[in-house]
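Case study 2.
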Amino acid sequence: MRFYLVFSLTFFSFLFVNGQSNPLVTKDSIAQQKWVNITYEKMTLEEKLGQLFMVSISSNQDKASINKTISLIKDQNIGGIIFSKGGPVQQAKLTNKFQSSAKLPLLVGMDAEWGLAMRLDSTYAFPWNMTLGAIKDNGIVEKVGRQIGKHAKRIGVHINFAPDIDINTNPKNPIIGNRSFGEDKSNVAAKGIAFMQGMESAGVLSSGKHFPGHGDTSIDSHIALPTINFTKSRLDSVELYPYKQLIQAGLSSVMVAHLNVPSLEIKKNMPSSLSEQIITGVLKEELKFKGLVFTDALNMKGVSTTGKNGDVELAAFMAGNDILLMPTEVEKAKEKLIKAYNKGKISENRLAYSVKKILLSKYKVGLHKYKPIAIKNLYEDLNSLEDDLIYEEAIEKAITVVKNKFYLMGVKKLENKKIAYVKFGDADHKPFLEELNKYAKVTEVSGKDIATLKSNLKAYNLIIVGHHRSNASPWKAYSLSNKEKNILQEIAKDRGSNLILSLFTKPYALLNISSFDNIDGVVVGYQNSKIAQEKTAQVIFGAIGAKGVLPVSANDAFPVNTGVPLKSLLRLGYSDFPERVGLSSSKLAEIDKLVQNGLDSLMFPGAQVLVARKGKIIFNKGYGKPTYKSEVKITPNHIYDLASVTKILATLPMIMKMEEEGKIALNDTFQELIPAYANTEIKNVTVLKTLSHYGRLPAWIAFYASTLDKKRKPSKEFYREKKLPGFSIKVADNLYLANAYKDSIYNRIGRQDLKSNRYRYSDVGYYVMKKYIEDTYKKRLDVLAADFIYKPIGAFQTGYNPLENHPKKSIVPSEEDSYYRYQTVQGYVHDMGAAMQGGVGGHAGLFSNANDVAKIMQMYLQNGYYGGDRFLDSRTVKKFNTCYFCDKNVRRGVGFDKPQLEKSGPTCGCVSRKSFGHSGFTGTYTWADPEEEIVYVFLSNRTYPTASNTLLVKSGLRTRIQKAIYESILN
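Prediction:
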């Protein structure tokens, strides 16, 4: 009783002792002291002793259990309850019921280390402490703690038994593991402080556990009494270190574990939770802790076997605990306490010391003016957008690359990669594989045995192994099986390919891997959640950097604090949460309404809409169907005919490249590019004027019309139904154009008269550009563009003549052609002139999806740089994104469309002058804005079933969507 003899001097005399303030005292300490004293004086002995008990209840328990708890509240005047399993609404209703039964409001506790989901269904699970331990920025950990605190407060919980500040130095620890911030004492302390401060800022009390340190045990104290065989010096310098730091920072309470610690307690097998030497001597006197002291659960085998009929509870109180958590026998324990009090074994000072601390706590959490929990919107409040934003940010910052031989991650040179994915583990892997496939074609490969698997992998030069274990709780199995370890080593032996191991569980899974010599890359994602899998894939491909460090030693090769920092390659990332990039989810929902209006108004059968900002795609949806009669729905993976968007995604980048190489200049004329035009009227048209649509050229030439017979059908003079010598230009199914007609196209252009000198949008100049590009490089435009842009950038859904590489069902039809080809145009370019060039036009012919279009537009937005490669010089991008004839009322840049100069035009009127983009005849549109860092893509087949449907154009829907995007900007 040595610690309590001076208590009677005045309860508040220990507010400031040795510079340490009482963490339970509020700013209005005078009012708090008054309430505590008045409340205490009104209480009977039984009521005071009742405050020492915090009993356990689950909101999903039967009526008898609930009634028993109500009886304890009314008859025994217990001071608090700790909730376990159940659901949030049930718990909130039960809390209100319990509080209404209590004479003095109850202190409500929970174990919610990673959020309420530790105990309740339908609530949010934040990253485990081990994951948070990998994060360098403690501000993110504080955010997590604050959000968990907000959830706890919302559901009526006043104290969360967190953070767990055990230093997990034993990989075989069966009960702590992922619950620990790691094995580095400084990191554990720093993370514990951040988490604690975040939670306390939300008005919820914190609790450091499990004192004096449960991190280096191989026994679960729920089952038996673990022994900590360290010297006092070791305990003081390691296990107790976080407690010292958190106490100094204002820790509200400490939970004392059930541990046998011989160096701190002379009595053999005395649980620390019953040890006066440990609780009073070490915690209170040596560490000068002033907050609440809780026992760990007294129904645990580590302590419950040491006594019965209330003996354990009495011993725990006598040792210095303030609150007896989850007692097994409240009535009998209370009787023992009353007897001890009456016999003078428990002094009034000792009782007042604990009870008044409990009252201080109740005042601090607002129980002096208690209000019931509001049930309305409870589920929504506990599962908010803010939760997702914090979770995603934490995971991004935690992911840890521990090996990156040959600078393999982020993966570059995609054009040279054939990538396989091999699944390990028993948990879901689809989010990882789907995310990988947003960057490159990644094939899942398996085999009935090692030999078959190795044989199946021979065709690939990069193998990504994903080890997926259950994310349901931190105690789930995490290791690789012996079979998986053997497979890993066998795959690693084959040096014809590179190997990346991706871990979606705790780092300890790396411990039993015999060798990493031939494993080129290792990345730890820590958890197997959807977001962790997606973000790890983004790290592998360099969309986001890697900043995490190992919170524990995972192998001799990877000691604690190992982390290979990776910088972003400026490749597009992905997020489901627009707020991550300063856009409003609720306002972006207007896009859904606008597109649905388009569908309902029969503007188009289906569409894709994509929005990216600040390097992240945050909106990418498919709407409607490929045709009005289709049974399937449009997905982000469907491929559309881009029409004139081809100009800026195929022809223009090649011209920009040629300009850098000195192979073309903006003041070059047609006769310089194609000498055959030397004696034509178009000979002096320059590249600059052509690409600015100021070259006096016609909008288009209907080349196909001259190849039709008198019945307006493809003439047998020019076409054959199958490929034959001299007829190899495939225009559509069973329709081949004469090879000789290619020259006729360029001859016809040469005979063209110039139009009046004004702005006139024209496809014609792009025929000339295409011919010059192909003549210069001696290769077709489709091959050149693929090699230069699409393959290196990872736009594998982009290209001409998509039927050569994609199933027909993945390609959206563009028209029921009743004037030229007389068939469904699907997989063949809609534009007739491009079709007559074998599907490869300078002005049309490119197919893609919104995701790939965004990649190329992002490259432009980043001044020619993307995915670790510089495709174009920033000077070049600026030169071509300049309006040279604005003074002539020509808004266009060089190839790029630009914002309108007057009221109406190609944009919403809300974009910056630096922005650029293009639209396409089939109902396509893309626009990029460097100032707001926004990329917008709209793809549709408004020409299906007929190109005469101009409702999309007349409605201005594409720019109305653009306006909605800009109105969603938050910052």
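The chain has 33 helices and 32 strands.
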